[in-house]
Write a structure and sequence with these properties.
Chain lengths: 88, 195
C-alpha cells in the first residue's frame, strides 16, 4: 500500500500522523482530538497505524520501565569515590 | 507536598543533610537515583568506561553542590530527581556526546511515519517482537543519543513533559517534537529488527 493523505472528519492523514503522540498522551486540544477521533473512525489506514504506534509505546514503557540494577562493583566504586571526596 | 516524612526523607531533606556533612544522607540519595542516572548516561555515551566516569562525576558534582540545591519546583522528590538527571545529562553531553555520534539528519514526519509502518502491513510476528525486552533494548540502541534520552526521561522515568523539557534544556514544543520523532524512530527500528 502506498502513502495517502485523505481528508476525513476535517483532518488529513498527514496531520493525524503529526499529532499522534499528543493524541496518545491525551495532551491535545479538544477540537483537534474530536477531529482525530472522527478521522480514525473513518480511516482504517490511520486507525491501524495509530493502534500499532500506541502499542509500541505501551510495550516499551511496560518492559523497560524498571531499570536493571547497576553492577555491584560499580556501585561500590562510586561509594568509595564519594567517601574519598568527603574526606578531602 | 515535599515528599518527605519521618521514615522516608525526601530528596530536599537528604541534600540539606548532605550539605551539613551527613554522608549517610548522601549515600541514601545516591542509592535512590543511581540506576536512573546510570541509564540516562549510558543512553548518551558509547561505552561502559565513559558511563562509569559520568556516573562518578555526576554524583561528585551533586555532593559538592548539595548546599546549592533548593526544592524550587512543585514536588520535592521529583525535583531532586530532575536536578540530578540534569547534572548527569550535562556531564555526559559535555564530555562524551561527540564520541557518541552526531545527531542524524532531520527527515520529514511523513518519511519517518513511512519507516515506522504508516500505510504498510505489519511484519509477521511484530506484536510478539515488541513484547520482548531484549528486542526493545536493541531497538533503543539504534536511535540517536537525543532520541534515546527523551524516551528514557519521558517513557521510562515517567517525567512530565515540562520536566523532560527542563532536563533537556528545550522548549516544551521542541521536546514534544523530539519525543514524537523518537517514538516513530523506535517503531521503525523495531520493524527493521528481523529477529
Amino acid at each position: 500500500m502506498s502513502a495517502h493523505d485523505r481528508d476525513i472528519a476535517g483532518i488529513r492523514c498527514k496531520e493525524v500522523l503529526a499529532h499522534l503522540s499528543e493524541y496518545v498522551d491525551g495532551d491535545i486540544d479538544p477540537r483537534t482530538k474530536k477531529k482525530i477521533d472522527g478521522h480514525l473512525a473513518g480511516c482504517d489506514w490511520c486507525e491501524k497505524f495509530g493502534g500499532e504506534f500506541s502499542k509500541v509505546i505501551g510495550e516499551f514503557r511496560r518492559n523497560l520501565s524498571r531499570a536493571a540494577p547497576i553492577d555491584q562493583s560499580l556501585a561500590e566504586r562510586l561509594r568509595a569515590k564519594i567517601n574519598q571526596a568527603g574526606r578531602n | 507536598m515535599s515528599g518527605e516524612n519521618r521514615l522516608t526523607p525526601g530528596d530536599e531533606q537528604l541534600l540539606a543533610r548532605s550539605a551539613a556533612g551527613d554522608n549517610h544522607a548522601f549515600h541514601t540519595f545516591v542509592l535512590r537515583h543511581q540506576e536512573a542516572v546510570y541509564r540516562l548516561i549510558r543512553s548518551i555515551v558509547s561505552n561502559e568506561t565513559d558511563t562509569e566516569d559520568g556516573l562518578q562525576e555526576t554524583f561528585l558534582a551533586a555532593y559538592q553542590g548539595a548546599g546549592r540545591f533548593h526544592g524550587r519546583r512543585s514536588s520535592g522528590d521529583r525535583s531532586g530527581r530532575a536536578w540530578i538527571l540534569t547534572i548527569a545529562r550535562n556531564k555526559a553531553s559535555r564530555q562524551f556526546r561527540r564520541r557518541a555520534g552526531e545527531p542524524r539528519d532531520m527527515e520529514s514526519i511523513e518519511e519517518l511515519g513511512k519507516k515506522a509502518g504508516w500505510g504498510a502491513e505489519l511484519p509477521a510476528g511484530f506484536d510478539r517482537r515488541i513484547e520482548n525486552r531484549e528486542i526493545l533494548e536493541l531497538g533503543l540502541k539504534r536511535l540517536s543519543a537525543e532520541e534515546r534520552e527523551v524516551l528514557i526521561l519521558r517513557e521510562l522515568e515517567g517525567f512530565s513533559g515540562v520536566e523532560t523539557a527542563e532536563v533537556l534544556d528545550l522548549s516544551l514544543p521542541a521536546m514534544k517534537s523530539r519525543l514524537h520523532r523518537a517514538r516513530l524512530e523506535l517503531a521503525a527500528a523495531l520493524r527493521e529488527l528481523n529477529i
